[in-house]
Structure formats: structure tokens, C-alpha cells
Amino acid sequence: MRTLLDPTNDYVFKRLFADAPDLLVALINDLRPDLPAITSVEILNPTIEPSELNRKYIILDVLARDAEGDCYNVEIQVRRYGAWHKRGLFYLARTLGKQLNAGEDYQELRASVGLHLLDFDLFTATDAECQQALWRFEMRDECQPSVSLGNILQLNLIELTKADRLGMPPGPLRDWITFFKHWREELTMATIAHEPVKQAMSRIRELSADEKARQLAFERERALHDEVSFLNEARREGRREGRQEGRQEGIEGTLRKLITLKFGDIPETASKRLEQATDEQLDTWVEQILTANALDDLFTTR
Known about the structure:
302 residues, 2 domains, 14 helices
């Protein structure tokens, strides 16, 4: 019997839900049960370009729009990095900004909703944070949280590992968490009654029997492992250089190597920015190079 593909592999995740819009509808509804249910979605980025699988610094997300025009960015993340929240907010805001053409009424704006499943613990600074696994971020007043600008921009996070550890009330949400954390365990999955989750398991079995899908999933996993190794080695080298030349010179040297490996030769203007940067700026850029698609993106993102 073939080993099942991992639904937390972002290639597998995208194939699972982009190829089956009804499953995506069920997932969206179950992840935000307090909001009105949607009945259908249009997948806005259904294809996966072969080149994307080897681009280590992207996440294969699913973009969808429902019948009311609300847009959803649904993705799973297994790697924690410092700039993840900035990336999420950037793409959420960009999705909102793309809705209107010149001269159109702001009243036509629809919600832009992020649904991010995180396969790691993110918020652990306090006991209260350690006891919460579901998070929703909206634009609210700091002093009076009941006063909000609406939920037109909304970022939902689910810490899967923490949610599984804490235990959730019986229901569809717990069944999805069980699926993403215990898909290998046949006896555990046999207890799931929620039909969409059962369908998701069937889809995983189908994909696992597809030799091409298995190969592409392997390529994606290898690229992500290469990313981790590449970054760790760069950081180790940076620490070595830092001990020899001083902290700032070490970080700057590491960042120059990362930029050269990813984007090629460094233009003179960018080189001067690196020379003049503070320690804080250099640290930020080291984190952000993982998600920057172009050198200009690295320096314009704050």
C-alpha cells in the first residue's frame, strides 16, 4: 500500500482544495462558523506552474471568490519565519485593492478574508496565548474593541498543533484539525463523521495513487527542505563572520550572499543601502528575503 501524501504539503493542499471547490466551500464555512455560510466559490488561481514547485520562497495558496464577491486567501504553513504576518497582511490588502477599477464606488468593495492554517505554535508569550489556538484579526479601536471598521479586512489563524493539543469541542472544526494532524492514523480517521472531511481523505487517497502527483509533491517537499538548509547555513556563516568582523558586518555579508544567490549581482544603489543600514534593518531584510519576489520588494517592504 502506498504511503499517503501529506495534506500539509502546500502542493498537496492546493491540489486538494483548488481541484474540488465544494471541499473548499466546506472548509471556509467550518473555519468561520459565526459568519454567513457561502454556497459556492470560483477558484481564481487553479493552476500550479511547474516552476512554482521549485521556488522555495513562495507559498502555494488558494485564492477564491464567493457569489457575493468576497475574496478568500486560504493557505497552510509549516515553517515559521519572522515576516509571515507582514506577508499575510500585504497579500490581504493587495487582494482588497485589486477589487476596484478607476472611478468605481468604494461601496462596491467586498471582504478580503485570510484563512491561514499554521502547523506550528505561533503565540506562546503568555499563559493566555498558550491556551488559545483560534485567532481573528480585524480593524478595531485599541481602547474600545467593540468599535470596529467592519470585517472587510480579516485575517483568521488556526494553530493546528496547539488546537489539537488543547482539544476542541466536537464538531466540523475539530474534525478538520484531526484530519490535518492525524491523517496517517487509520483508526482515528475512521471515527470522523463530518462528510467533507471524509471526502478530503478520499481525495488524499486518490492523489496518493497518482504517480505524477506523488512526484510533484516530493519535488515541493525537497525544495522546502533546501530552503531551510540554505537559510540555516547562511545564518551559521553569518554568525562565523560576525564573530570575526563584528555583528553588523557579519549580517550584511550574509544578506549580500542571500541576495546574490536569489537575485544575482547587487546593483550599486542596493549595495549602498546595505552599507548604510542599521542592525535592525539588516535583521528585517534577512527575514524578508524569504518572501521577496524581487530585490525592490525586499527594500520597499518594512
